[in-house]
Design goal:
One of its GO terms (molecular function) is G protein-coupled receptor activity. Belongs to the G-protein coupled receptor 1 family. It is a single chain. The chain has 319 residues and is mainly α. The protein has twelve helices and three strands; from the N terminus they run H-E-H-H-E-H-H-H-E-H-H-H-H-H-H. The longest helix is centred in the middle third of the chain and has 34 residues. It is globular, with a radius of gyration of 22 Å.
């Protein structure tokens, strides 16, 4: 087919080929074992966490409601990507339609931005709990908590919807190989024969302006928390206050560090970082944090530990 005819390729008629992890095709079967195990653990762990928070009235507090939102987002994040990834590794099911690819791209970015907003809400929760403990119940009511969760979802939808229009406006010229295990914005845009400067600028804007601002506000919250904590005269009280933030800080680091590494490596570090390393980290990112988050909160949060032990004791008694 002559190159000129490629310019008339309709996006709706496009079919893409996801090749998994370039350079590691022979290891796909072996890599699928830990990825599948982590995916199953992530789904089971987060669904159990959600079930426990929903069914235990004592956990119907802002901190745990935000945690259930985070767990829901983790389930959606891993489920959006891992099944197709495993289908590629196990059955060589590499073909995906343009519509399905764009849908996966949208939900991937939408969930990421939503999780970022939830982490900011959780940082605000810790700020109010430690810096203004006497006003905690009046500031963070259940109504306010629900509105914050709804605002996170609406904001993410508004931010990520333009990604769909940005890839649909491009003209495609027959290239359909995506060297990845799932579809994301720049992976699709790079296959177009148009100028993708707008896609690059908007992607950077979302990463730096919206998600970057979330990080700035999280840092500000924890700076004020630390100032308050170190004014507490008792070392035991200081450690207790810091311990309530430890699990959240671990989750924040797990969420943002690999995400921004993957984002900037994809745009600026392709020559410095082997492509298979970048794709492997991107694959692990969608299953490792969702798997570890319930474990971290289960280990570091005594209320969740107590409720989990009580629940398992009830189950064992019934059996």
């Amino acid at each position: 087919m002559p190159p000129s005819s490629y310019n008339h390729t309709s996006p709706q008629a496009m079919w893409y080929v996801l090749i998994g992890i370039p350079g590691l095709e022979d290891s796909h079967t072996w890599l699928s074992i830990p990825i599948c195990s982590m995916y199953v653990s992530a789904v089971v762990g987060n669904v159990f966490l959600i079930f426990m928070i929903v069914t235990e009235r004592s956990l119907h507090e802002p901190m745990y409601i935000f945690l259930s939102m985070l767990a829901s987002a983790d389930v959606l994040l891993s489920t959006t990507t891992a099944p197709k990834m495993l289908a590629i590794f196990w059955f060589q099911s590499m073909v995906i339609s343009f519509g399905c690819c764009v849908s996966q791209m949208f939900f991937l970015h939408f969930i990421f931005v939503t999780e970022s907003a939830i982490l900011l809400a959780m940082a605000f929760d810790r700020y109010v709990a430690i810096c203004h403990p006497l006003r905690y119940t009046t500031i963070l009511t259940l109504s306010v908590t629900r509105k914050m969760g709804l605002a996170a979802v609406v904001r993410s939808f508004i931010i990520c919807l333009p990604f769909v229009f940005l890839v649909y406006r491009l003209r495609y010229c027959g290239r359909n190989i995506i060297p990845h295990s799932y579809c994301e914005h720049m992976g699709i845009a790079r296959l177009a024969c148009d100028n993708i400067r707008g896609n690059i600028v908007y992607g950077l804007t979302v990463a730096l302006l919206y998600t970057g601002l979330d990080i700035v506000f999280i840092i500000m919250s924890y700076s004020m928390i630390l100032c308050t904590v170190f004014r507490i005269p008792s070392w035991a009280a200081r450690l207790k206050a810091l311990n309530t933030c430890a699990s959240h800080i671990c989750v924040i680091l797990m969420f943002y560090a690999p995400a921004f590494f993957s984002f900037f490596a994809h745009r600026f570090g392709e020559k410095a970082i082997p492509h298979h390393v970048h794709i492997l980290i991107a694959n692990l990112y969608v299953v490792v944090p969702p798997m570890l988050n319930p474990i971290i909160y289960g280990v570091k949060t005594k209320q969740i530990q107590d409720r989990a032990i009580l629940l398992f004791s009830r189950i064992s008694t019934c059996c």
